[in-house]
Write a structure and sequence with these properties.
By secondary structure, the protein is mainly beta. A hairpin with a 6-residue loop joins strand 3 and strand 4. Strands 1, 2, 3, 4, 5, 6, 7, 8, 9, 10 and 13 form an eleven-stranded antiparallel sheet that branches. An eight-stranded antiparallel barrel has the order 14-15-16-18-19-21-22-23. About 15% of the residues lie in helices and about 50% in strands. It is built from six helices and 23 strands. It is elongated and about 100 Å long.
């Protein structure tokens, strides 16, 4: 019953946390460049071109009217010492449709580097062509020595075709030392920026610009987290040896949690996405007193779990826009490492309604697993007060089998279980 009452409360907290924040604007100091070459300065929506599609929302200084530009209206837009977007026409981009788009410019120089929807492109000065950097695979039949297609079916195999290496080799062949480095480059922003930057330096390009250079590739921030968790435990069993669990209705338990976290992100790539690692300690207990009849016998049971664990969690967090209140959503996985695994079971069996019950002690310290895995999801908001940063979050966690499956399987029966947790957590960032 308590869980049923908490469910709408949990849903309400999630709704309040993420309601229309996706449509929220985040205007920052920026500029737009018109086709005639004029530069207008004002406020630009930082989300434009990333989450808001191929539009640039702009407010010129001294004017409150918001103007939405498309790639057909302006040459570029950006933010000082930060991101810059160029209007480009993709007319030969393989699987991408031919269209005018805003591409983020990562490096400008003898060779310029761009990214659009997760795909990287390069262009050399005086060359109108954008070269797509990508990898494809193809299937082929591999034959043993002496075999041919006429004598054998061969073995189907798959190989990678590194189109990005071929394109970079062709464009950078006028700098000999780059040829070995293009073979090792990966299709990641950090690797490609470093490669293009080094090539431009090899060409003596004194006017090269590396955008977002003031932003670090890696940033970490730790903190303390704590809150209240509310957990229910359910079992399903078909074998006679575990019918007491099939009929058990365990109490839901509410308990405090406390731990530490580390938030890791790459501001150079994205201010919105981060990896959060957490470790929390908690203690929980469950009781049930099921009674049932089985082949004419009456079974009364007293069952108790007394547990303590360290929860290790890893999940992806996405932050929305906001200056004082900044909402976020989470999704990931966790493992409960149980330090205390007490399972007690007293069973009282009556052969007739008037007979004295026979007590059976069925305690089993190995019944509870040492590691319980599950997944989590949730939403919340940061509260940013100057340099101080707090978080408040509602989270749902689903844990798979609490029992040690290897122990259960020794008697050839079928037992499953799960825990469902609604947690309300607050955090403080150091």
């Amino acid at each position: 019953m308590k869980t049923n009452l908490l469910l709408p409360l949990f849903a309400f907290v999630l709704f309040v946390s993420v309601k229309p924040v996706i449509a929220q604007s985040d205007f920052r100091e920026g500029y737009v460049v018109l086709p005639a070459g004029d530069t207008l300065r004002g406020q630009v929506n930082y989300r434009a071109g990333i989450l808001a599609g191929n539009t640039c929302a702009f407010k010129q200084h001294g004017k409150e009217v918001e103007v939405n530009y498309t790639p057909l209206d302006i040459v570029s837009y950006g933010f000082p010492n930060d991101k810059n977007f160029q209007s480009r026409h993709l007319d030969h981009a393989d699987t991408l449709a031919a269209e005018q788009v805003f591409m983020e410019e990562l490096v400008r120089g003898t060779i310029s580097l761009y990214t659009y929807k997760g795909t990287f492109f390069v262009q050399k000065k005086q060359d109108p062509k954008l070269h797509k950097l990508h990898i494809t695979t193809e299937s082929y039949y591999k034959y043993e020595k002496g075999q041919t297609a006429e004598t054998s079916n061969g073995t189907l195999a798959v190989r990678r075709i590194n189109h990005h290496v071929m394109a970079l080799n062709m464009l950078m062949q006028d700098c000999f030392k780059m040829l070995s480095k293009t073979e090792q480059v990966s299709l990641s922003q950090k690797s490609l920026v470093a490669l293009v930057r080094e090539y431009n330096q090899c060409q003596g390009d004194a006017e090269q610009i590396v955008f977002k250079e003031s932003k670090p590739w890696l940033a970490m921030r730790g903190g303390i987290i704590g809150g209240i968790s509310h957990t229910s435990l359910d079992f399903s069993a078909q074998d006679e040896a575990y019918m007491h669990l099939e009929h058990a209705e365990f109490n839901t338990t509410t308990y405090p949690t406390l731990g530490l976290f580390l938030n890791i992100n790459s501001p150079r790539i994205s201010e919105h996405v981060s990896l959060q690692l957490e470790g929390q300690y908690f203690r929980s207990s469950y009781e049930a007193h099921p009674s049932y009849e089985w082949f004419g016998f009456q079974y009364d049971n007293n069952i108790a779990f007394n547990l303590a664990a360290v929860k290790g969690a890893a999940f992806i967090r996405y932050d929305f826009n906001g200056k004082v209140f900044q909402p976020f959503v989470n999704a990931g996985t966790f493992i409960n490492f149980y330090q205390k695994r007490e399972y007690t079971h007293r069973q009282y069996v009556k052969r007739t309604s008037t007979s004295n019950p026979e007590e059976r002690i069925k305690d089993n310290p190995d019944f509870v697993t040492k590691r319980q895995q599950g997944f989590l999801g949730g939403a919340g908001t940061y509260l940013i007060l100057g340099k101080r940063k707090f978080s408040a979050e509602a989270r749902y966690e689903y844990g798979a089998d609490l029992q040690e499956q290897a122990t259960v399987n020794t008697v050839n029966d079928n037992v499953t279980s799960n825990t469902k947790t609604f947690a309300f957590l607050v955090g403080y960032y150091f």
